[in-house]
Here is the input.
Amino acid sequence: MIPYIRAREIGLTFRPKNREPVRAIKGLDVEVGRGEFVTLVGPSGCGKSTFLNIVLGLLRPDTGEVQIDGRRITGPGPERAMVFQEFGLLPWRTVLANVELGLELRAVPAAERHRRSLELIQMVGLTGFERHYPHELSGGMKQRVGLARALATDPEVLLMDEPFAALDAQTRDLMQTELLQIWEKSKKTVLFVTHSIEEAAYLSDRVVIISARPGRTKEIIKIDLPRPRDYEMRLTPQFNDLKLRIWETIKEELLVRAG
Ligand SMILES: Nc1ncnc2c1ncn2[C@@H]1O[C@H](COP(=O)(O)OP(=O)(O)OP(=O)(O)O)[C@@H](O)[C@H]1O
Ligand SMILES: [Mg+2]
Here is the structure.
């Protein structure tokens, strides 16, 4: 079976003017099946965000290529959307207007835009806050708006770059479970990035561990826990074994950086 997202031999070196080039990624291979949830973990600076930007189509790799559904990508496309760590909301737009943004850019008529956006606002649990502005929301609520906005255009692929990193621990737990519910319903293909081993093990079908810079694929760990998953599952020995396996592989890479 051909994977839905197939990134092979990806390499990218940043060449800032008047400074040393930075080789961010070298030989990164990632495959994601349709409807699969795959998470990338790896030390800070190993190129995770760079890689997501390549898959989104905002950056061109120097080597290798990314294919979606068998087609090489050359730029952004309607089948892909990104959810950012810092929410990326427009402060002068209300919740509703933020969620509508992508639909507006695609010239979806106003009535249809409204209907779809209100549906998504309900799905992420923000009904009643449609007319609020981002500064009137908590971090968790802003992240829900970011998620609703990404889902509004009904992309096949969700790219999520540490979407829950700015949240407090309990809101984060809640958002993880909600994301799983949304994912199970919507059957999206998700490529997720996190520094949390717990989060990676809880959410994913597979975890791709990336080496210290320049990032390459070091190991892929299959998370063969049953679904739907719930919080209690995190207390099982099987879950802890998986966390330990991920941690041991990452630890070697952290030591590379420290050494
Ligand atoms: N626009 C840029 N110009 C120059 N160097 C860059 C640029 N963007 C990223 N880099 C460098 O590329 C490397 C990879 O950065 P990237 O942001 O992809 O890492 P990351 O794995 O997402 O890290 P973190 O876990 O801290 O978010 C870093 O060394 C970074 O300094
Ligand atoms: Mg990053």
Remarks:
- The first helix runs from residue 48 to 56.
- Residues 88-154 form one domain.
